[in-house]
Structure prediction request, 494 residues.
Amino acid sequence: MDPLAQHSSETRTVSPLDDDHFHDECGVFGVFNHPDAAALTALGLHALQHRGQEAAGIVSDDGDIFHSHRALGSVGDNFNTENVIDRLKGSLAIGHVRYSTAGGSTAMRNIQPLYADLVFGGFAIAHNGNLTNARTCRRDLVERGCIFQSTSDTETILHRIATSRHRKVIDRFIDALRGVTGAYSLVALTRQKMYGVRDPFGVRPLVLGRIGDGWVLASETCALDIIGAEFERDIEPGEMVIISEDGVKSYKPFAPVEPKFCIFEYIYFARPDSVIGDRNVYSVRKQIGAELARESHVDADMVVPVPDSGVPAAIGYAAESGIPFDLGIIRSHYMGRTFIQPSDKIRNLGVKLKHNANRSWVKGKRIILVDDSIVRGTTSLKIVEMMRNAGAKEVHMRISSPPTTHPCYYGIDTPNKDKLMAHRMSVEEMAKHIGADSLAFITHDGLYRAVGEEKRNSECPQFCDACFTGDYPIPLVDKDGDPGPEQLTLLSEG
Prediction:
């Protein structure tokens, strides 16, 4: 991702209707040894569109040269014609969707996969995650004469590969990654080979699939389903796989550490139909709702999800509590993320473009609203107000994650700490601010029970849950250190 734009909402092309959720930065996908590699990659990226909606790209290899198409906008906007796919020749392809920064050519330069001609030939790479020492690495590389063309931390990996003194590509790649810290799930292409690698902590997901005689790498299993590929296994934390005509070879080049998979993948980021770590995401979310009902039940007439992310947890809550589940809020699916940028005068009306009360069902009822998170609190306030205006007698809110008190530095776009509602207010203060009769979040232990653990191990948490606890498993080198002056004056336009 862009290390300069992280935690700066002013640089995002975010609709005010979408600014109260965390946003994953990217999704990655790759196909090896299939005649329709580019077309399958476009389909795979479409299945991963929820991981990044503002830019998409594909790089393919036909055995002689690499072909590339990258553009701002959704996968459907940019890979919807035969002409585009036909130009992406070859039986190997990798692709990327991202939640991009705003701003002219800077945004275009950051669209992945990134590509470079290195001493051993072409190399393309796509990245889900965030390097926590990217600025420090960039400063060192610039002082050594490297010329950066983007603000993406992924380019740091490219330059480290290019400047490595090792001869073999795999040794250069490993050498480059040993010099960076942070979260990364990567897919990469060299001539006739595809690579997949996860950081030692395994913060971001990456899976291996099989299609005919070919192989697939993807951020989630739902992307395998869309192309008819069979799930083989998860790429393990700290594992690098190299896929060639000889098959799949696995390497473990990094010192082992306790894995710290992002627990928010189960709460919100991953698609409900994906399977991650042998856990069906939809089932986990229903179980989170059931835990919420056991921990913080309140008498009511109706359990109402905040669509769409609150639906599975609301189903679980309703089943456990015995209170009927109903669609008290109807979501419009026909507006884009950047449909309008309204003036302040009409901004408060914007939520109705996305959500509207089902008045006939809500009027006179005691409502339990279930949502996945509260970040800034702006949407929650409007949703509660919408229920009041529709005639709800009581409005109680239940959240399927613990209070979000800290930013993420591992590949999720989050506000600065002082913009996080739970960092500034107690739960009681938050309830009063959004106008709810009561507000409750799932506890840390309740969340861990929902994903199959007995409780959270406070000495060594089983997952990365830093956004709830401030317990960052990977050093925040650039945040805690002094990376020195910026070296990005050429890229500040836009």
